[in-house]
Every structure is written in structure tokens, then in C-alpha cells.
Specification:
Blueprint (H helix, E strand, L loop, with lengths): L2 H53 L16 H7 L6 E3 L3 E5 L11 E9 L6 E11 L3 E10 L7 H6 L2
Antiparallel strand pairs: 1-2, 2-3, 3-4, 4-5
């Protein structure tokens, strides 16, 4: 083989290697974003079910609009969880008891999700807060350390 042919082969291998590396990086970035979106959608669905529990009459297995019934232990069976936390292919989730009712009767319940995808040293997390009695749902996404466990996620959203 001539020097020119060897040079073309080496150059081709370098270009193909660079293209593969860029493709892998793009795939990993997309997988992380998709996981963040999936845990947000799951948390939104769970939050909607919590609102449904609050508005369902006690005679039908709901809270009947009562703050005292809004404990995680009462809510999780209604939304299909077997414990105060659950998981699926997207991530792990945990629900909190209702916050203390304010003078106007308002209170909150929070659902936290922790994704399974890891990018660099981060994992996606979501805090979904339901404000009662109106049932307003707000979500806050965040990237947390990849070593974080679901039990530690609520604290990460309360500290600046």
C-alpha cells in the first residue's frame, strides 16, 4: 500500500471514531432529558390522583375535603402505591403528609421524584407540590447528585 492510501484509511478511522463519540454523547443527553420529562409526567399524574382523593367523599373512600385525612398513609393506597414510596421504570417517588393547615385552612402535600438516568454526576429530580383547598399543582425540576437516594430528595428542595 502506498503512503497516501494508509493516510486516507487512518483519516477515515479518526472521522468515524469522532462521529461515534458525538453520537453517543447526543444519545446520553437525550436519555437524561427524556427521563426528566418522564418523572415530571409521573409526578403530575400522582398529584392529580391526590387532588382526586381530597375531593372524593369519605363514603367513597376519599378524604371528603378534610385536612386530617391527608396523610401519606391514607393517600398512597388510593393512588395505587403499596407504601409511602414507589418506583417504576422512570424513577423513584415519595409522598409527604399534608403540611399544617394555615389560618385560612390551606395546606400542601408534596410528591418527590428521582430519575434513574445519570449524566456526569447528576440525576434528575422533581418536586410537585399540591396546594389545597384549590388543588393547584406546581412542579420544580432540579438536578441532584447521582448518589442521592429518594429519602434524601425532599431535603434538597428545602435547602437553597
Amino acid at each position: 500500500m502506498g503512503t497516501q492510501q494508509i493516510l486516507l484509511i487512518v483519516l477515515s478511522v479518526i472521522i468515524v471514531g469522532a462521529a461515534i463519540a458525538v453520537g453517543i454523547q447526543m444519545f446520553n443527553s437525550q436519555a437524561y432529558s427524556a427521563n426528566k420529562s418522564a418523572i415530571a409526567a409521573d409526578a403530575q399524574s400522582f398529584a392529580t390522583q391526590v387532588v382526586q382523593y381530597y375531593k372524593t367523599p369519605e363514603s367513597q373512600g376519599g378524604a371528603g375535603g378534610k385536612v386530617a385525612s391527608m396523610t401519606a398513609a391514607n393517600v398512597f393506597p388510593f393512588i395505587g402505591w403499596s407504601a409511602e414510596n414507589t418506583n417504576n421504570d422512570s424513577g423513584d417517588y415519595i409522598i409527604t403528609d399534608a403540611s399544617a393547615a394555615a389560618a385560612d385552612g390551606s395546606f400542601t402535600v408534596a410528591i418527590y421524584g428521582l430519575g434513574k438516568e445519570i449524566r456526569a454526576t447528576n440525576r434528575p429530580a422533581i418536586e410537585t407540590v399540591i396546594s389545597f383547598p384549590d388543588g393547584t399543582i406546581t412542579a420544580t425540576p432540579k438536578d441532584v447528585a447521582s448518589t442521592t437516594a429518594i429519602a434524601g430528595v425532599p431535603a434538597l428542595f428545602t435547602t437553597p
